[in-house]
Every structure is written in structure tokens, then in C-alpha cells.
Design goal:
By secondary structure, this protein is α+β, with helices and mostly antiparallel strands. The protein has a domain at about 30-95. Helix content is about 35%, strand content about 15%. The protein has 3 helices and 2 strands. The chain has a two-stranded antiparallel ribbon with strand order 1-2. The protein starts with 5 loop residues before the first helix and ends with a strand. Mean pLDDT is about 75; it is low at about 1-20 and about 25-30.
Length: about 100
């Protein structure tokens, strides 16, 4: 009688191989969506510039990177502030 002992002695391997690393999050919801493109652009800007700059430097670099990737971008977008359906002011996003 032969027994297959490999299943009980061999550690299971993750899809990435021997348990190293973690699977990448799916920012594109099943496609290469804008979330994945944005995350890729953020990583590229950080790799290129590194740490230590003020926020506006990263904002300008990210804008350039997103445009290079063919994305439509609006910066410092003004939105109306409403209270009970009445406009009470304007707010700029990302400020």
C-alpha cells in the first residue's frame, strides 16, 4: 500500500510563491480603471521626487504625470456649499 505524504508535509504556496508579498489591491474594479492609473502615477511621482517637498510640489508633479498618462484632470475645483438647498458659499477642493 502506498501513501501520499506530500500533501501533509509540503507547505501550501500562495499565488505569489512561498508566501512572500501580498496580492496587489484591485483599484480598477476588474479593469485598468482610473483608480489603478492614479495609484500608479502617485507611486511614480514618489519614486522620482522622494520625500521632503511641500504638498504643492507633489500636486504639480502628479498633475503632470496624470496628463502624461492621458487622463483628464481638474485641479482646485470649486464646489457650491449648500445648506437645506440654499447656496451658502463656495469651497475649493484640495486646499
Amino acid at each position: 500500500m502506498t501513501t501520499n505524504k506530500t500533501n501533509s508535509l509540503t507547505p501550501s504556496l500562495s499565488p505569489l510563491g512561498r508566501g512572500r508579498g501580498r496580492p496587489k489591491p484591485n483599484f480598477g474594479a476588474g479593469r485598468e480603471g482610473c483608480g489603478g492609473k492614479i495609484m500608479g502615477a502617485i507611486v511614480e511621482v514618489h519614486k522620482e521626487l522622494g520625500p521632503g517637498f511641500l504638498e504643492f510640489v507633489y500636486e504639480k508633479a502628479l498633475l503632470e504625470e496624470l496628463l502624461c498618462r492621458g487622463m483628464r484632470v481638474e485641479t482646485q475645483k470649486a464646489i457650491d456649499l449648500k445648506y437645506k438647498n440654499n447656496k451658502i458659499g463656495v469651497h475649493r477642493l484640495n486646499r
